[in-house]
Design a protein that fits this description.
The structure is a single chain. By secondary structure, the chain is of the alpha/beta class. The chain folds into 2 domains: 39 residues, no CATH class; 225 residues, Alpha-Beta Complex (2-enoyl-CoA Hydratase, Chain A, domain 1). 34% of the residues lie in helices and 14% in strands. It has 11 helices and 9 strands. A 7-stranded mixed sheet has the order 3-4-5-6-7-8-9, with helices on both faces. A two-stranded antiparallel sheet has the order 1-2. A hairpin with a 6-residue loop joins strand 1 and strand 2. Helix 5 runs parallel beside helix 7. The termini are far apart.
Length: 323
């Protein structure tokens, strides 16, 4: 009896047991609704029922922006991993290793170069999963390098901001990235190039106090938390109750700090349209068929494929950026 209970029965249970992935279901933070992960992923990480915008990783964001989900990764300068030899409960280098293992990225900012509806753009994305998207030396170098590439290629620069602020483990060196990125933004303006910022949830701290609020056009995703200090700190300082929706994208739009709040499904065509307007690029030409004026529509014969005149220029892939 012990053999049947202790050996045979556990083996049968193990054979019939099905392992369930940890991320099979997602709970909507807004409504508490449980949604199948694949459905949310296919919907660009927007909860189908409530339209709540979940956070997107850097790779998913770049795939959602570029044509055919293809782009060139921009080579970024290397920086000292732990310049201050910082340690709190754990070593800073150990925290970086864990973040790199979790996200597969070298740091919080990833830069890509490719086509958006046929026109070249440079896009930088902050990944909140990498230590809260915090701004350190590596992230600052990545943003500056992306803006330099945009100037070299004479292309618009799009920034997806998502951060808790400057990275405290790098002290004054992380704070110095605020003026450095501000100077890089000025470099774009002197070159007459568009700088478009998309504020995602959350964008706070030193990032909001620098490049995240310096765009020619300020876009935001619905419900995004945008601010410098937290609401509780503000309430304790001014000793007043803050209004409902304070520091949310819609509140900032209504008070003039954000130009547009754009649903994630509409973000790509909106960015493409803004780039065309700001660069004075005409719409892509469409295929046209020339029919003689002496021939009426009823008398017109079918046109062979060889007789169709295509006025659209052939799209050529962008050249690989210099390392």
């Amino acid at each position: 009896m012990n053999w049947l209970t202790n050996v045979v029965r556990p083996k049968i249970r193990n054979m019939l047991r099905r392992e369930t992935p940890e991320n099979l279901w997602i709970k909507c933070p807004d409504t508490g609704q449980l949604v199948f992960y694949k459905d949310v992923e296919q919907n660009q990480f927007v909860i189908p029922g409530s339209n709540y915008h979940m956070r997107m990783g850097a790779l998913a964001r770049l795939r959602s922006v570029f044509d055919n989900e293809t782009w060139y990764d921009v080579a970024l300068p290397e920086v000292v991993a732990d310049p201050l030899k910082f340690r709190d409960e754990r070593k800073y280098v150990d925290r970086i290793k864990d973040a790199r293992t979790k996200t597969g990225a070298q740091d919080a900012v990833k830069v890509g170069f490719g086509k958006l509806e046929g026109n070249g753009v440079v896009v930088a994305v902050q990944d909140f999963d990498f230590m809260g998207g915090s701004l350190g030396m590596a992230a600052g170098e990545a943003i500056v390098r992306g803006m330099e590439l945009a100037v070299e290629k004479h292309l618009p620069f799009i920034m997806f901001a998502a951060s808790g602020g400057a990275r405290m483990q790098e002290g004054i060196l992380s704070l110095m990235q605020m003026p450095r990125t501000t100077v890089a933004v000025q470099m774009l303006r002197e070159a007459g190039l568009p700088y478009i910022v998309v504020l995602t949830n959350p964008t706070t701290g030193g990032v909001t106090a620098s490049y995240a609020m310096l765009g020619d056009i300020q876009l935001a995703e619905p419900g995004a938390l945008i601010g410098f200090a937290g609401a509780r700190v503000i309430e304790q300082t001014i000793r007043e109750k803050l209004p409902d929706g304070f520091q949310r994208a819609e509140y900032l739009r209504d008070h003039g700090m954000v130009d547009m709040v754009v649903h994630r499904h509409d973000l790509r065509p909106t960015l493409a349209r803004l780039c065309r307007i700001l660069t004075k690029t005409p719409l892509p030409a469409v295929e046209t068929v020339t029919v003689s004026s002496a021939t009426t529509a009823a008398e017109a014969e079918p046109v062979a494929a060889a007789e169709i005149v295509t006025t659209a220029p052939e799209a050529t892939p962008p050249a690989a950026p210099q390392a």
